[in-house]
Amino acid sequence: MLQLRRLAPIAALWVALAWTQARAADEVDPTSLYEVSTEGTSTKVKAGEKGVFVLSIKSKAGSHVSDEAPLKLQVKGTQLSPAKEQLGREDSVAKKAEGQTFVDPRFEVPFTAASAGKGLVDAKLTFFICTEKLCARQQKTFSIPVEVQ
Asked: What CA–CA distance (Å, rounded) separates 55 from 74?
């Protein structure tokens, strides 16, 4: 009986450890479910001319960007003036094709370069990435340098 009392805490520890490891195996890092890209963004423009800030979210197999939860993109510029500073899902240039359940958002925000020098496009993206088991809020910030000639 005395040996059983001594082994009980050790057995409880092993059970807790096994449960924690099993739980960790079920959990997925939400950031591994998608990629965000700014490919296609203008990095050189002439003063007074327009460029474009491009941001796209590409979900990986088994996940999708929620079309029910809020999606917000805030864009600001230094030496640059974005055509729109507050964007939502309705501003995405990517639209659902027939039979498509979800669509990966893509934004193309025109901006005007004020004067020669170094400019910046700063953006803050908030969205929800979902699978069958989770829906997680994600927030990303970007700062893209733009050379204004």
From this structure: 11
Question: Which structure tokens are listed for 24?
Answer: 């960790």
pLDDT exceeds 50 at position 25: no
Over range 8-28, report the average pLDDT: 48
DSSP string, the chain: -HHHHHHHHHHHHHHHHHHHHHHHHH---GGGGEEEE-TT---EE-TTSEEEEEEEEEEPTT-EE-SSS--EEEEEEESEEES-SEEEGGG-S--PPTT-S----EEEEEEEE-SSEEEEEEEEEEEEEE-SS-EEEEEEEEEEEEEE-
The predicted-structure confidence for 36-65, as pLDDT tens digits, reads as follows 999 999 999 999 999 999 999 999 999 999
Count the Cβ atoms, other than its own, within 10 Å of residue 55: 25
105, 90 in Cβ contact below 8 A? no
Sign of CA dihedral 105, 121, 126, 131: positive
